[in-house]
């Protein structure tokens, strides 16, 4: 079963629904599996076109973070080794990183690998790393026996990256924006520490800190407890009160959900339950944030500790 867990899945899902609806309305026989694979291939084929459009006006599509170069330099000064592994081609990466971190962005990274083909980069074992020649815009045929700073490498596997650098296990902290393509295999198979970049977190936290939301969420908790306490009383007054409170509770539940997004609610929670996306995120990511430079507020040796989760049988304050 394929999970739709990233932004590329949105047009993919819409296109799949539209084509299937067209076939159904026009009584066209089709194999659902073939349709799925064709739609997925068509979405993948859009990437080069998208790259060309973005490269024509990088500033229109990429938001510059002035803190990024300083944060990279902070890590370098602390003796940390930085590496970049991306599925994008070098020309696209170079334009984007030049905007984000300046003309000398490559000096921050000890290893740069493009066209990595993630998640296959983390699962395959036999795909060799190749050196990229910027002058000819092609890959050279020589065997890569070491990874040099400032050079660009294509493809390869995480096994080769680990063998050539010695970076293994929990000594590596790897950041990505996709729970499956970026984080799942490196944490489950290779023991890396992982961090997720979730852009939607900014809106989520702003909403959670809204005074009206806090008021409604706290009252919803208290109202639920009142309903639980009164529901076993058999008198008419209790039944009238219970019906009124249940209607108010239903209204509050919808209000606290739709305040995040009118159609889908929060990315992280559906009413009181975490979403599937959240459960996968918590499984594969040790930490998550909306922006990598948020870590600039901490020392490079800072340790983040998990918070104690509350189980159903444990007491929880209304205002916890």
UniProtKB/TrEMBL annotation:
<keyword id="KW-0479">Metal-binding</keyword>
<keyword id="KW-0460">Magnesium</keyword>
<dbReference type="InterPro" id="IPR023214">
    <property type="entry name" value="HAD_sf"/>
</dbReference>
<keyword id="KW-0378">Hydrolase</keyword>
<dbReference type="GO" id="GO:0008253">
    <property type="term" value="F:5'-nucleotidase activity"/>
</dbReference>
<comment type="similarity">
    <text>Belongs to the 5'(3')-deoxyribonucleotidase family.</text>
</comment>
<dbReference type="InterPro" id="IPR036412">
    <property type="entry name" value="HAD-like_sf"/>
</dbReference>
<protein>
    <submittedName>
        <fullName>5'-nucleotidase domain-containing protein 3</fullName>
    </submittedName>
</protein>
<dbReference type="Pfam" id="PF05761">
    <property type="entry name" value="5_nucleotid"/>
</dbReference>
<dbReference type="InterPro" id="IPR008380">
    <property type="entry name" value="HAD-SF_hydro_IG_5-nucl"/>
</dbReference>
<dbReference type="GO" id="GO:0046872">
    <property type="term" value="F:metal ion binding"/>
</dbReference>
């Amino acid at each position: 079963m394929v999970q739709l867990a990233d932004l590329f899945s949105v047009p993919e899902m819409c296109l799949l629904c539209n084509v299937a609806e067209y076939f159904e309305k026009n009584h066209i026989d089709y194999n659902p599996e073939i349709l799925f694979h064709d739609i997925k291939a068509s979405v993948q084929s859009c990437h080069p076109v998208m790259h060309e459009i973005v490269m024509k006006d990088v500033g229109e599509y990429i938001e510059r973070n002035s803190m990024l170069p300083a944060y990279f330099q902070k890590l370098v000064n602390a003796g940390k080794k930085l590496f970049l592994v991306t599925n994008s081609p070098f020309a696209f990466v170079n334009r984007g990183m030049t905007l984000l971190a300046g003309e000398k962005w490559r000096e921050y990274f000890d290893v740069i690998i493009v066209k990595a083909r993630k998640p296959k980069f983390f699962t395959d074992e036999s795909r060799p790393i190749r050196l990229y020649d910027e002058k000819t815009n092609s890959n050279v045929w020589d065997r890569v026996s070491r990874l040099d700073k400032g050079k660009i490498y294509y493809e390869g596997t995480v096994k080769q990256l680990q063998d050539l650098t010695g970076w293994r296990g929990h000594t590596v902290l790897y950041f990505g924006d996709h729970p499956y393509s970026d984080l799942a295999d490196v944490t489950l198979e290779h023991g890396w520490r992982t961090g997720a970049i979730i852009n939607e977190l900014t809106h989520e936290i702003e909403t959670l800190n809204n005074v009206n939301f806090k008021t409604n969420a706290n009252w919803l908790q208290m109202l639920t407890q009142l309903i639980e306490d009164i529901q076993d009383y058999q008198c008419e007054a209790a039944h009238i009160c219970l019906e009124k409170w249940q209607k108010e509770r239903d209204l509050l539940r919808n209000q606290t959900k739709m305040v995040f997004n009118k159609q889908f609610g929060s990315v992280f929670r559906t009413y009181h339950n975490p979403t599937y996306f959240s459960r996968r995120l918590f499984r594969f990511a040790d930490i998550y944030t909306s922006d990598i430079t948020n870590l600039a507020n901490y020392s490079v040796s800072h340790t983040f500790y998990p918070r104690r989760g509350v189980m159903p049988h444990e007491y929880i304050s209304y205002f916890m």
